[in-house]
Amino acid sequence: MAARIILVTALLALASSHALAFDPSSLQDFCVADYDSNVFVNGFACKNAKDVTVDDFYFTGLDKPASTANELGANITLVNVERLPGLNTLGVAMSRIDYAPFGLNPPHSHPRSSEILHVAEGTLYAGFVTANTENGNLLFAKKLKKGDAFVFPKGLIHFQFNIGDTEAVAFATFGSQSPGLVTTANALFGSKPPIPDYILAKAVQLSKTTVDWLQQQQWLDIAQEYRQRLVQANSDTLGSHACML
Asked: Signal peptide position in this chain (predicted)?
């Protein structure tokens, strides 16, 4: 009897772990994120439906290029639940990536989502690296031109590099309201507190002096994942909503 109870408990735990591996499912039409709630849940608590407005589902600015005047020559305009409250529980997000000539979206991964990239302008070299295999970590990479799309599987390290001498633009779509971002170099050499240098030196086969130098660098995050309350872009937008109502 005891063994049977243990088996049932283990199966329930396994089922629960799989259920929690995805964004929470909607049990109503929408669950607009309440940024001011003190309730801790997987995602955000719902705003009172009486307080929901059309602007909770609205984001503007994806038509405007972001500044690429940085060391990497790239910038990301992220539209996730942190910036668009209406995405809460819907399981989707997106971003615009701008690349200067020879700009780089550096190797990174999204722990909670796969990604599909669509090239809107320019030419990119993009790819991902597999998990460990008996043949090593395999690189799948391809030159992408305007109109092409490329998929990056969930959790795998991937990148995009503008191989053209003109600016490039791409749009990415994610299967999570909050896909997460782990930039490989930042995580290894810019963690707080830092990973002990003797561990990194052995892991990446570099001298401690080199590792110490790398840890002293300012590692750039081109995807500013911060909460930005949405505001109306201009009075014309306000007027268009009034007309629709």
From this structure: 1-21
What is the greatest pairwise CA distance in the chain?
Answer: 71
> What is the pTM (predicted TM-score) of this model?
0.81
Question: What order of strands is seen across the sheet that includes strand 168-174?
Answer: 74-79, 93-99, 168-174, 115-121, 149-152
- What pLDDT is recorded for position 42? 85
Measured in whole angstroms, the distance separating CA 157 from the mean position of its chain's CA atoms is 12
What domains are there in the chain, each with its CATH number?
A: 28-180 (2.60.120.10)
Q: What is the mean pLDDT of the chain?
A: 86
241 is in an annotated binding site: no
Quick: pLDDT tens for 169-226.
Answer: 999 999 999 999 999 999 999 999 999 999 999 999 999 999 999 999 999 998 854 3
134 is in an annotated binding site: no
105 is in an annotated binding site: yes
110 is in an annotated binding site: yes
3-state secondary structure the chain: CHHHHHHHHHHHHHHHHHHCCCCCCCCCCCCCECCCCCCCCCCCCECCHHHCCHHHHCCCCCCCCCCCCCCCCEEEEEECCCCCHHHCCCCCEEEEEEECCCCEEEEEECCCCCEEEEEEECCEEEEEECCCCCCCCCEEEEEECCCCEEEECCCCEEEEEECCCCCEEEEEEECCCCCCCEEHHHHHHCCCCCCCHHHHHHHHCCCHHHHHHHHCCCCCCCECCCCCCCCCCCHHHHHHHHHHC
